[in-house]
Fold this sequence. Notes:
The chain is an all-alpha fold. It is built from five helices and no strands. It has helices at 2-6, 13-33, 39-50, 57-67, 76-108. Helix 3 (39-50) packs antiparallel against helix 4. The chain is elongated, with a radius of gyration of 16 Å. The mean pLDDT is 85.
Amino acid sequence: LYEWSSNFGGSILRPVLGFIGSIVVSAFFYTLFSSGEKFFLGFIYALANALPFIGLGRQSAELQLQLFPDFSSWSILDTSLFYFLLSLNSLFAFLFLFLIGLGLRNRFRL
Length: 110
């Protein structure tokens, strides 16, 4: 997996594509949860959860209300699946950001 995703830390492009891909896949699933109408909001929500440290995290609660207005009436299974996908989104984003940093470090030999 390490070889595939970053060529053992030698590639910057692979983790960038992985990061973008994980955001798009997460946005797709968030759009499915929101009845399939708001892909752009799903994309922004996925990005806000992937990069909370640049100030988008504050927008996350507002975006969640716009995307999922009936969130409080979801079943426990839907809620658990939603939080699992949210965790995967954050995990993959962190992983790919780390690999981007590793690739930059190896490129410039810092």
